[in-house]
TrEMBL record:
Record keywords, A-Z: Isomerase, Lyase, Membrane, Multifunctional enzyme, Oxidoreductase, Transmembrane, Transmembrane helix
Organism of this sequence: Glycine soja (Wild soybean)
Any Pfam family hit: 3HCDH
The enzyme's E.C. designation: 1.1.1.35, 4.2.1.17, 5.1.2.3
Superkingdom per UniProt: Eukaryota
Protein name: Glyoxysomal fatty acid beta-oxidation multifunctional protein MFP-a
Single GO MF descriptor: (3S)-3-hydroxyacyl-CoA dehydrogenase (NAD+) activity
Lineage: Eukaryota, Viridiplantae, Streptophyta, Embryophyta, Tracheophyta
Domain 3-hydroxyacyl-CoA dehydrogenase C-terminal per the UniProt entry, residue ranges: 8-77
A GO biological process held by the record: fatty acid beta-oxidation
GO CC term (a single one): peroxisome
Magnesium found in the keyword field: no
TM spans (from-to): 51-69
């Protein structure tokens, strides 16, 4: 499969909605460790928060900002990101 050079490439286009869902759950009171634990039961190697910790928060924020800029209608703007940024 050939993929063009666009915002997010393939991996980030899959990861970003995954992370946004995790942030939405946290905003509704779900524990980040519980989210990551449950995800592994679906045979996904690691949850979104463990993955962000591995990749680096700075990379996640930079990627998120690109998605907000390029896809505002498809982006959930979490209240947590400005607090953590």
């Amino acid at each position: 499969m050939v993929v063009g050079s666009y915002t997010g490439f393939v991996v980030n286009r899959m990861f970003f909605p995954y992370m946004q869902a995790g942030l939405l759950l946290v905003e509704h009171g779900v524990d980040v460790y519980q989210i990551d634990r449950v995800i592994t039961k679906f045979k996904i190697p690691m949850g979104p928060f463990r993955l962000v910790n591995l990749v680096g928060f700075g990379v996640a924020i930079a990627t998120g900002m690109q998605f907000i800029q390029n896809f505002p209608e498809r982006t959930y703007k979490s209240m947590l990101i400005p607090l953590l940024h």
